[in-house]
Amino acid sequence: NPPYLCSKDGIFLRCPQVKESRSLWENPYSATTSWKPCAERNEKNFAHVPSENDTNGYILIHAEGGLNQQRIAICNAVAVAKILNATLILPILKQDQIWKDQTKFEDVFDVNHFIEYLKYDVLIVRDIPAWFPEKEELFTSI
Q1: Of 42, 59, 128, 140, which has the most beta carbons under 10 Å away?
Q2: Do 70 and 63 meet the contact criterion of CB atoms below 8 Å apart?
Q3: What pTM, to 2 d.p., does this model score?
Q4: 120 Cβ partners below 8 Å, 6+ apart?
Q5: DSSP secondary-structure letter at 37?
Q6: pLDDT at site 88
């Protein structure tokens, strides 16, 4: 007997057949079965990270907002640098206009760990290259 939702005046409304998953947490999409959590990183599985000589350019961000918004901006910058094969310059935490907070990236994050952990994903440098003529040209919003 197929399952029924309800019966009224002798008319049965049928439920559509639903294939039950073996597990609530089973991944139904086969395309993602090869994905691994970042915690299972293995350096031999990483693509080539550009050197400073073969980078597609530099990315510098001014992360603003609260700490969580800044964290998200930093994660996005790492992802964009990876996709564009660009070098990431250590992010600048924008000064809060109300509190006049002058906290720097290195005050909040362990810079050496940040660079070391991401070295197989993206090249990170501590500052704008010395050869760059005008630093003011970098500070545009999109």
Answers
A1: 59
A2: yes
A3: 0.63
A4: 41, 43, 46, 49
A5: -
A6: 95
Counting runs of H as helices and runs of E as strands, what totals does the chain give? 3, 7
Q: Which amino acid is at 93?
A: L
- Please, which residues bridge with residue 124 across strands? 88
pLDDT at 111: 95
- Computed on alpha carbons and rounded to an integer, the radius of gyration of the chain in Å comes to 25
Tokens (6 digits) for 120: 């197989």
Residue of 85, 88, 91, 81 lying closest to 55 (CA atoms): 85
CA–CA separation, 70 and 73 (whole Å): 5
Instruction: Quote the tokens at residue 22.
Output: 């073996």
Q: Which two tokens stand for residue 72?
A: 């998200």
What are the distances in angstroms from CA 39 to CA 32, 53, 132, 141? Answer: 16, 30, 36, 33
73 against 38, higher pLDDT: 73
21 token code pair: 């998953």
- Residue linked to tokens 């993206």: 122
CA distance 101 to 54: 37
